[in-house]
Write a structure and sequence with these properties.
Layout lengths: L3 E11 L5 E12 L4 E5 L6 H9 L6 E6 L2 E2 L5 H11 E4 L11 H10 L6 H10 L15 H13 L5 E5 L7 H18 L2 E6 L2 H5 L4 E3 H4 L1 H7 L1
Parallel strand pairs: 3-8, 3-9, 6-7, 7-8
Antiparallel strand pairs: 1-2, 1-4, 4-5
Length: 226
């Protein structure tokens, strides 16, 4: 049984000259529970839009996105937000940490959207990613690598079934990138979460056994290049 099942998914945006430009056109895509898959795609290829559609951050023009058997397009906005908070953990390239809150508060606020905060579990997640001594630090007091670790802890704190990672090592140096990727993959394994990661970095992609080309998956790219 698929955790994520997509069919006939399309999303377009209006250009400054008023035309509609098709960005995502995916006929079929699926992900099994616990599966770890990387999508290869260059900047501007639509892969971030694809992740936003899966997460329900953007609404599709047409098609179906079924998450745990539930069609996200058929849900109202509040129900879709709740399903996302309970089922999906999102690791953003730019981290998206709240600067006025501590590491612990950032993780607890992320948990609150999924049904309730748990200070002990949030603390345990930060300890798991090596930030036991940084619980009360603010993002500005952390290195870039440490900020990414907070983002990983926040994304996984609600024990999501699916983790989406958008160029999660793009702002990290070589050593921190390698450590962050290993941390993401291992924590997903421990929590039984599926992982869908998008990247254009050959080293990141080389760490995965299952890598697919977004240009093959996304027919909008094929049409643009024809």
């Amino acid at each position: 049984m698929s955790l994520l099942a997509i069919s006939a998914l399309q999303k377009s945006f209006r250009t400054p000259d008023g035309e509609r430009k098709l960005i995502v056109d995916v006929a079929e895509f699926s992900l099994a529970p616990g599966q770890q898959l990387a999508l290869r795609g260059e900047s501007g290829s639509g892969k971030t839009t694809f992740l936003h559609l899966i997460a329900g951050i953007l609404a599709a023009d047409s098609g179906s996105i079924r998450l745990g058997g539930r069609d996200m397009a058929a849900l109202g906005e509040s129900a879709r937000d709740r399903l996302r908070a309970e089922t999906i953990g999102y690791i953003f390239q730019t981290f998206n940490l709240l600067q006025g809150y501590s590491c612990l508060e950032n993780v607890m606020l992320g948990m609150a959207f999924g049904g309730g905060s748990n200070r002990a579990h949030a603390t345990a997640m930060l300890e798991r990613v090596g930030l036991a001594q940084r619980l009360r630090h603010y993002p500005r007091q952390l290195s870039t690598g440490q900020q990414q670790r907070v983002a990983v802890a926040r994304a996984l704190a609600n024990r999501p079934a699916l983790v989406l990672a958008d160029e999660p090592t793009g702002n990290l140096d070589h050593r921190n990138a390698r450590e962050a990727l290993a941390l993401i993959r291992q924590t997903c394994r421990e929590n039984g979460a599926a992982l869908l990661l998008v990247s254009h970095d050959p080293e990141v992609l080389g760490a995965f056994e299952d890598v697919r080309d977004f240009a093959v998956l996304n027919r909008a790219l094929q049409e643009a290049g024809s």
